[in-house]
Amino acid sequence: MAGAARDGKVAPVLPLATLIGRELRGDGSERQLVRYGHSGFAKRGEDYFLVKPDCLRVPDDPSSAFSVFAVFDGHNGVSAAVFSKEHLLEHVMSAVPQGINREDWLQALPRALVAGFVKTDIDFQRKGETSGTTATLVVVDGLTVTVASVGDSRCILDTQGGEVSLLTVDHRLEENAEERERVTASGGEVSRLNLCGGQEVGPLRCWPGGLCLSRSIGDTDVGEFIVPIPHVKQVKLPNTGGRLIIASDGIWDAVSSETAAQVCRGLPAELAAKLVVKQALKTSGLKDDTTCVVVDIIPSDHCSTPPPLSPKRNQNKLRSLLFGRRSHSSVGKLGGKSALFGSVEELFEEGSAMLEERHVLSHAFLVSHVPC
């Protein structure tokens, strides 16, 4: 089973002939440099994040490397968020067929993500605890980015030219009419909190339980209407790479996707994450946990070390490599399976359609691929 390399473990040295052979055979790998940074402040202490830049699809084979980044925003306690951080990736990888090549791995990954989310939810609910969590899991393999998400944490993509694309769908009942229709069609009730005298206050919630989200991991007390089946989107970045911003709703309730991308363009990932959090706090204060992970995916031909430059020139150079020189941005609309937005190619997307069939498919996939 693929997994993260052990801390401190030195990858085996491969003969030059082996490396040349792989290059000549063209194994489909795409060389890139992944740089990342994270930042956040705690209000309730229920946000968690996962950073694993050194995963291997094939043990002891550096050419099979991929990276994983995730944000978990817990509610009603931290148990579901902690459990998901510790087990979600393991369950996803357990659902990937063994012995497949990179192309097949990328094709199998969306289904494995669905299976992994469902498996994590089932295992956590067996614990009998009532907390829940959002989960946004991002897998970076070369220039291919695959994102699976439940809840209202969000992942955006910023590419050359200043195009900002949303790679997730918010599962808030207040804002997602399709999810409201799904819940009510399944027999759930969607309404606001009803105070004495019939006054309704607050956001739309699902009853029983009163959860504002339509999808999550955990939440054993809210019934079958809240599902753990993620929205999954897979895209291939242009040769110029791009930047991912993954954050909890403490960020997105304060700043828009466009603003988050704009405030940190041209800056290293670590500083970028800090600036996004700073902008959120400046806008609305610390009303909720704020967690932000920034990931820069830089192709190999941009990875050579440049000559020493002044800080300002360094920022301008990084800006031109990652995002171009345009200062404006637009939010990309989610399209069909073969859609193109900007120079980013959409390889796969499955959202809320045919949820019942997807749930059955995920269960069958779990039974056939995930060991007990």
TrEMBL record:
Record's keyword annotation contains Manganese: yes
Catalytic activity: O-phospho-L-threonyl-[protein] + H2O = L-threonyl-[protein] + phosphate; O-phospho-L-seryl-[protein] + H2O = L-seryl-[protein] + phosphate
One MF term in the entry's GO annotations: metal ion binding
Pfam assignment, any one: PP2C
Domain PPM-type phosphatase: 26-297
Entry keyword set: Hydrolase, Magnesium, Manganese, Metal-binding, Protein phosphatase
Domain of life: Eukaryota
Protein name: protein-serine/threonine phosphatase
Gene3D superfamilies in alphabetical order: PPM-type phosphatase domain
EC number: 3.1.3.16
SUPFAM superfamilies the record matches: PP2C-like (SSF81606)
Organism of origin: Eragrostis curvula
Enzymatic class: hydrolase
PROSITE patterns reported in the protein's UniProt record: PPM_2 (PS51746)
Membership in a protein family: Belongs to the PP2C family.
Cofactor(s) this protein requires: Mn(2+); Mg(2+)
